[in-house]
Amino acid sequence: MDEEITIIDSNTRNERIKNFFINNKKKIIITVSIIIVIIIGYISFEKSKERTKIKLGNQYNLATINYKTEDPKNTIKDLINIIKENDVTYSPLALYFLIDNNLVKELEEINILFDELINKTNLEEEIKNLNIYKKGLFNSNFASENELLKILNPIINSESIWKSHSLYLVAEYFYSKGEKQKAKEFFNQILVLPQANNEIKLASKKRLNRDLSE
Known about the structure:
- The chain has helices spanning 2-23, 25-66, 72-83, 90-100, 107-120, 125-139, 145-156, 163-176, 180-191, 198-211.
- It is mostly helical and 214 residues long.
- It has two domains: 14-123, no CATH class; 128-214, Serine Threonine Protein Phosphatase 5, Tetratricopeptide repeat (Alpha Horseshoe), CATH 1.25.40.
- Helix 3 packs antiparallel against helix 4 (90-100) and helix 7 runs antiparallel to helix 8.
């Protein structure tokens, strides 16, 4: 008797499953088709990204290898185009190459390219902060107090690993301007910062003890 009930229940369950697929045939086909399209689209997108990455890598290598033997204007144009591709690897490298080799002279143009990286490229948070710090470092010889602080405030007001570097840059900026009290304030902030870089903290102590102990 129990075996007969089990067979009946099994047949009923199978019949329900069969009817479900028959009644929902169109929905199932559409759902499966959508999933397949999504998977194919994702794979195609990833392959496209990979091809773009390889292409940018080749363009960067060619531009940096040939810049001494070709017209620098071509190198500058190629590297700026790479920066504007907003690639997380080659866009920063292209900007650093321009700066390190002094290929772009205009401060405003360099800042525009920094902003392209910082605001439009999908960098990891601390890589983005590194570029903010580099922008501040680049501008520190030209910027006013307010301009420098405006650049670095996103880091100074955060818990970034680049916070102590930014505080030290501002402190040294004020020290170079002869504004010793402001310099002391920023050096002292480094000393009480829990995650301060050890070398930065040591340099701050030396500056305070040697030059700002009055």
